[in-house]
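User: Please predict the structure of the protein below. I'd like the answer in structure-token form so I can feed it into my own downstream comparison script.

Assistant: Understood. Taking the following sequence of 749 residues as input:
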Amino acid sequence: MDSNLKKITLSLFLSSALLCAATENITSIKYDGMVHISEAVAKQLNEVKIGEPLDPIRLEKTIKTFFEQGYFEDIWADQEEGTVTFHFKEKPIISKIELKGFKENDEEEQKTLLQIEKGALYDAKRIESAKKRIVEALNQEGKIDSVVEVETEKLDNGSMSVKFLANEGEEIIIQELRYNGVSGLDPDDFDKVVANKEHDFMGWLWGRNDGKLKVSELQYDPLRIHDYYMQFGYLNAKVDAPFVAVDFNKYEAKMEYNVFEGDIFRVSDILVFQDTAVIADQELLDVIKLEKNKPFNIKTFRDDADSIKTKIADLGYAFVQVQPDLRQDKETKTVEVIYRIVPGKKVHIGNVIIAGNNRTLDRVVRRELFLAPGDLYSLTNLKDSRNALGRTGYFETNTIEEKRIDDETMDIIVQAKEAPTGNIQLGGGYGSFGGLMLSAAISDRNIFGSGITVGLNLEKSTRTQSYGFNISNPRLNDSDFSGNFAINNNSTEYDTYTTTSRGLSVGVGHRFDRYWSGYVGYNYSQNSYSDMSDANLTAEQLRYYESYAKSSVMTSAMYDSTDDYYVAREGMNFSQSFEKAGVGMDADFLKSRTIFGAYRGLQKLIDFDMILRYKARFNYVADTGYLPINERFYMGGIGSVRGYQSYSLSPITYDLSGNVQKNGGTKTFSNSFEMSLPLVPEARMRATAFYDYGMIGNNSLTEVSRSSYGVALEWFSPVGPLQLVFAKPMGQKEGDQTAVFEFTIGQRF
């Protein structure tokens, strides 16, 4: 018998035994121990009436009604001198609830499993339901024979502490996986799409199959295999649900699929039909990638439908419908591809609503949008607006929602979650050359929400110290023009000399379109050398170390189509700059810098947030009169070849005594291949594996070449984007100055 039912029965028996003989009229009714129900509500639920004798039947019904509210462990009543008192023992409140041993780093998933919040009343049925949900979730992840225990404790304040302890069971390992009826495709290729895979030898290694059975994915794997077949023209392929035989003594499984492949169908024709002609059919056919007489591909078919939708939506038809269809001819084994298009009406933007920007000014957000009130709708403009907001670095995430007002009007709502743009940036590392290096910068990329960047940086190490101030505005007066100003003072101690540089720079830029921008600037600096040991230097080497003033102009062009400032998942960036020194001062040279980056997220391809990155830099300087050593190039550290101390790799010469002199190079090339994976998604933490290779020289680019590999931790910490780099040099030679590790805070990854 249910415990609550026992309490009701006992309470009613005692109440009836005490009161059934009472004949006097009730003069008052009291409620003792009742908290969650107000007295006004209790009076509405109570069928016992003042001025009448106590009726046991009404009393029984009233107590049952109170119990049904779910707030009480026990209820009883007594009568004394005409006063009936209802006594309530309420269920305790849960003040602490925990789930240990499962999903500990996923707060949202834990809430879904428990469905019990702090402050809720303790209810044994709800506790048991939560326990069953946790066990079921463990089973769905292939954890067989899992056990969940519940520990409860009544605290001093009368509330309850509830702790769920999940003891994960054994995982089922798929030791054998067979595909019956497969001949046209390679069954090994199915591993690209299915979640349940056969265990590989040393499956615990990254890139190998661990063979763990994922119960929740079993229903979807046949659909994934079927879809894969349709990418190769097998339109009528059938894949049955897998048969799984489990040995619970060994926690091993054998699986097999029965597959009917059918015939390969080729594309016979591609047709488009517009309900209302809004664009030339040929323009739509031009964006279609499917080809006649080639095997049908379902993935290309879907992509083509999206391309058609984008093409028409960019003309203002926001609610366009693209209805793809296939007509098979089984005799000729061909398929006719048809796209039926219902454009609807042209849509204009009504209101543009900005939300979530507690700090950033509305106008700073609006100037990055390519849609404004009154504009004709464009799907490409909508996507580009989202990417442009991501490139600012002001927001952690942003979404643009479309709110349909009527057939011809749409509001767009920008939902932005702001990122910490004002922070104390830190950087540093430890290297064989510079020892312990520390740098700090107080900066804000979005001061007062204005989009203006202001920074003060300091750097100190065993051999270097520098400080500077900079301010820049990427959109002067919300226009397409930008401006910047900076001053700096740097000092670096090398093995045989110390160099000091003091200077300033100023410039203006202009954004030509949503991707391209240009810049023109002026630099001035005074540069000097000290602590030199020049007795053994040749005359040519001494010329490098003359104090000099530099006056130069710089021009550059930049392209950026990435979707995020810090962690780009699509697009590329490119910049080309030229600096010409010799405008009335000592230094006279022409310098070129080229930077390129490409980013590709693989979420859509492999259903996993893997990002591939390629970054490259090429620098060249020509001596057109006087090229000081400070203006030459060096390699090493973050941005070139990690694992070697910053600016430590250089072509070498020898002084009169045969000692090595590093005088820098006139040309350098470095590139990096990176693979970034989510580590702790809830904490926005990623792990990145990389390979760096670089070259530097004077007469030849390959005079000095080095490479390295390693891993980096990328984390959006509370103080800003943090990057920890651990690199292993390759091809290291005697005299190389290696870095044990490097880190930065506040820089883009």
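That's the full token string. Residues 3-19 form the longest helix (17 residues).
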